[in-house]
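Tip: read the tokens left to right.
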């Protein structure tokens, strides 16, 4: 389920933005690039975060009343299974309210449950993991007659949840992680307060503990799936992360000895490096959360999951997610790689299908499928399936172009992306805001509120005339330099020389591409194929247009089997 982003005052906007690059990490790099790959260098097993993983939500309405209404249509799910498969992480909203609405007709209710179970079984059978988001208080169990209400009758709610988990995990033994609610910090999804959420989490966690004791199996449970990692139910910002619901939940679970097997939150942004955000404690986000876990005696390596993310500019419908969806396509590998480098364990893109024609009247083009078919975004996930099982350490000294390089045996697969953040100014300033003192932050916000920021970015002399500290002026200068470079490269094709060392024999070369030439219903097929004979080094020069993704695959061709000796002798006497 997607959060409804509300544009508020500049204070909230800039605090809620994510970081782009640290000030010390900014550097000028040439427009033409080189990437050298030694196939004999060390690799690590490809982390799970690089697998195609997605929230299976979509449409929000289905003509079949017995099909889960927040789930993408059967046709779209079938297309995904055929092209991508179900071996990664997949999130499903398990709507307890919707299921309860059919309580008086067990036949219809069972058909709805069978539809849920069929998909869960399919994922589990294909070695995938289901994150089952438990959402929606059944009618009669909440404080008000609303699926968003916190449960009032916790004993009965526990009985309902326990029955669900017993059947799916203990009896059927499906591979499921249970997530307690979705976006509890937003009124659009939860009508309670912090203690109400804690009561809800405790109810589910205690049900899990009892079932684990009965069945002698481990059942993962976690949350809180907040709208951003530092958010809480009273509103919060990056300056006070210790007030976050994540911190409070860790502390609550420690106090009551409750399981907390994973931590999840949302991350909607245009910033590919959002998870590399520094905090006021001079620590990156991930390090701070892991420090909290260690302090309260939880496993420091508890999985951290961004359970909903997408390209987002605070609007329900964006051209970058439809007619210009190649922009979102180029954002996806950039964001995933940065998540990995930040230390995030898993991610789930939101969502499989656009939301439209639903009874709530919500239209959001967040899906990789629309009514018109798949967008170019879909092909990025197909590209991810080409990655090998070994990941090379690969890094370009560039703010916008990045590489994901892998191998499987003697085969090589490389994804190259060129993404320029259109909101690079606010994201870069937001990244650095924790390094400013209170008066400097106030001065920066005044510049934004007075509409001076755009003017300052256009004229270098505008910065020197500002009555602010040298530190803030330096930050604005660096932001200005980065913005000038971004504006230049938004319309400039770049060249990258790809050199692969250590290959021998004959290889089949394939190149796939996503760019502005196609946004909807783009076929996924190699735009270039050839056979190459390699002695030791292979080179290819690639042209990278703005907002594009390319995948290069080198597959070693098997040697032709030599004919048996007797057959060779007979041939020689002819």
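Filled-in amino acids:
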């Amino acid at each position: 389920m997607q959060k409804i982003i509300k544009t508020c005052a500049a204070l909230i906007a800039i605090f809620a933005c994510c970081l782009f690059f640290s000030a010390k990490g900014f550097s000028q790099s040439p427009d033409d690039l080189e990437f050298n790959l030694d196939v004999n260098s060390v690799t690590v097993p490809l982390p799970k975060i690089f697998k195609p993983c997605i929230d299976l939500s979509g449409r929000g309405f289905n003509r079949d009343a017995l099909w889960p209404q927040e789930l993408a249509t059967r046709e779209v799910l079938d297309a995904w299974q055929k092209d991508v498969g179900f071996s990664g992480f997949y999130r499903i909203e398990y709507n307890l309210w919707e299921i309860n609405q059919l309580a008086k007709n067990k036949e219809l209710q069972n058909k709805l449950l069978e539809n849920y179970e069929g998909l869960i079984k399919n994922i589990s059978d294909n070695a995938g993991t289901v994150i089952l988001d438990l959402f929606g208080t059944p009618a009669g169990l909440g404080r008000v007659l609303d699926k968003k209400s916190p449960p009032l009758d916790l004993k009965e709610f526990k009985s309902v949840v326990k029955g669900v988990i017993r059947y799916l995990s203990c009896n059927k033994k499906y591979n499921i992680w249970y997530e307690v609610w979705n976006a509890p910090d937003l009124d659009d999804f939860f009508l309670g307060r912090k203690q109400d959420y804690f009561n809800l989490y405790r109810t589910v966690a205690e049900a899990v503990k009892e079932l684990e004791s009965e069945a002698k199996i481990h059942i993962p449970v976690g949350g809180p799936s907040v709208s951003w990692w530092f958010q809480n139910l009273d509103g919060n910002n990056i300056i006070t992360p210790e007030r976050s619901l994540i911190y409070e939940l860790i502390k609550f679970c420690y106090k009551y000895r409750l399981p907390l097997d994973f931590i999840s939150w949302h991350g909607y942004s245009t910033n590919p490096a959002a998870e590399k955000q520094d905090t006021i404690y001079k620590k990156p986000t991930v390090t701070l959360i892991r420090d909290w876990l260690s302090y309260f005696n939880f496993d420091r390596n508890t999985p951290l999951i961004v359970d909903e993310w997408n390209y987002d500019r605070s609007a329900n419908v964006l051209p970058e997610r439809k007619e210009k969806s190649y922009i979102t396509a180029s954002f996806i590998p950039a964001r995933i790689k940065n998540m990995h480098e930040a230390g995030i364990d898993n991610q789930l893109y939101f969502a499989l299908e656009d939301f439209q024609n639903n009874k709530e009247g919500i239209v959001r083009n967040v899906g990789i499928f629309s009514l018109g078919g798949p967008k170019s975004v879909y092909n990025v996930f197909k590209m991810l399936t080409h990655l090998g099982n070994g990941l090379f350490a690969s890094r370009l000294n560039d703010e916008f172009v990045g590489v994901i390089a892998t191998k499987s045996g003697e085969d090589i697969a490389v994804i190259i992306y060129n993404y320029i953040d259109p909101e690079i100014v606010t994201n870069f300033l937001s990244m650095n805001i924790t390094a400013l003192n209170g008066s400097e932050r106030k001065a920066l916000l005044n510049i934004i509120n007075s509409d001076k920021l755009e003017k300052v970015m256009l004229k270098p002399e505008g910065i020197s005339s500002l009555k602010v500290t040298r530190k803030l002026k330096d930050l604005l200068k660096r932001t200005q330099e980065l913005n000038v470079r971004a504006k230049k490269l938004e319309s400039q094709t770049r060249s990258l020389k790809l050199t692969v060392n250590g290959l021998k024999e004959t290889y089949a070369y394939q190149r796939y591409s996503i760019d502005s030439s196609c946004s909807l219903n783009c076929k996924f097929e190699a735009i270039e194929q050839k056979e190459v004979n390699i002695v030791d080094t292979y080179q290819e020069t690639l042209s990278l247009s703005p907002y594009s993704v390319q995948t290069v695959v080198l597959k070693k061709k098997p040697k032709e089997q030599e004919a048996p000796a007797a057959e060779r002798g007979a041939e020689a006497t002819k």
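The radius of gyration is 26 Å. The chain has 16 helices and 20 strands.
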